Amino acid sequence: MYYPYLRARQFELIALRELTQEGSINGFVTPILEPVKDSFNNIKLAFDVFKEHDQPAYLIVNPSVGQVNGDVLDVVRFLSEYDNTYEIIKPAFHYNNNAAYIKQTVEDYSLVNCMLICSGSTDAEDVDFLELIDLPQIEEVTVQDPNSNRSLDRLMKRRDNPYVRLDDNFEKEPRNSNFLGLTERKFSEEHIYYREDNFDGFSDYTVLPSEFIDGGSAPRAVVIHLTYLKANNQIWVKHFTSDTNDSIANVQGKFSEAAQKAVRFCRAENLNNSAIVELEDYYDREHYPGLGTVKKISIKNHILLVSQYLQNNP
Questions:
Q1: Which residue among 110, 193, 220, 248 has its CA within the 20 to 30 Å range from the CA of 28?
Q2: What angle is formed at CA 8 by the lines to CA 251 and CA 37, rounded to 5 degrees?
Q3: Count of Cβ atoms closer than 10 Å to residue 86 Cβ
């Protein structure tokens, strides 16, 4: 099972809504969503689609970043008011020496089917942590960069909790223009080996950096990040970057330059899914859809790539 970790912003949620409506990820993908806005309107729109199509997802109730972060109750109140069965939309918690908050929230809101998300520095002998993962309400445990904590990794592999690894696979650059001279990069092999390595699932931040950045300025360069499978089934990523990057002017033209490279590559390699079809349509019509849609296309392509691999390699 693949657990893409996404901040619950507009275009991330649109990507998931479209994938759910296409019926292309159910049974193979369970998103983990971290809300970063103090309004839940876009989340509710997505959840309505998830419920209609029985698409499960996790919602982090104590976000680590954004407008409503920390061990708060705003998110869990929204979730309990939206649907207190927690069967399709399930609660998730960041664990960071906050066992008392998690236990109390689980009790007060009758939470079930919960996920615990731990950093790679979580102590495998932490009594509070061990008590938490013994709770019947804690269904799954996700560990960030488990290779950095062998003690925790060994502990989780001896337990019955479904165990998910979270890796930060996207190599970001200080500026978009830096991607221009880069060749393709290996992105991940976890989809091939996660079960062999005794994980029940794997997670990444898709083709986005793990670092949260709120807002942004007009870019000097437009980049389209597309992942694809090589012949050995490894996932690699290519960065299709505009050429005229000396100012912030003419973003539409920058998109056209980047899209031309991406479309030529996809057609030469016979890459095809709904995200690539959408990109080709914008390019062929010479239409600039906006940077949010460009990001959405990259996210959709990556999730589709992983989902299709899992469907073809059960």
A1: 110
A2: 90
A3: 19
What CATH number is attached to the domain comprising 24? 3.20.20.70
235 occurs within a structural domain: no
Question: What span, in angstroms and rounded, lies between the C-alpha atoms of 139 and 168?
Answer: 23
Location of structure tokens 């990057």: 245
What are the strands of the beta sheet with 32-34, ordered from one edge? 5-7, 32-34, 57-60, 89-95, 114-118, 138-144, 163-167, 201-204
Contact 283/256 with Cβ under 8 angstroms? yes
Q: Looking at residue 180, what is its pLDDT?
A: 94
Number of domains within the chain: 1
Give the residue-averaged pLDDT of 148-157: 95
Give domain status of residue 225, yes or no.
no
Domain ranges, residue 139: 1-167
**Residue 157 confidence (pLDDT) above 90:** yes
Tell whether the model's pLDDT for residue 218 goes beyond 80: no
Instruction: Give yes or no for residue 214 having a pLDDT over 80.
Output: no
Higher pLDDT, 247 or 73: 73
Domain for residue 172, yes or no?
Answer: no
Helix (H) or strand (E) segment spanning residue 47: helix 41-52
Please state, in angstroms and rounded to a whole number, the distance separating the CA atoms of residues 203 and 131.
24
Token couple for 214? 């709120």
Whether residue 29 lies inside any domain: the answer is yes
User: Which parts of the chain are beta strand (E)?
Assistant: 5-7, 32-34, 57-60, 89-95, 114-118, 138-144, 163-167, 185-188, 201-204, 223-229, 235-241
Q: Are the C-beta atoms of residues 141 and 112 closer than 8 Å to each other?
A: no
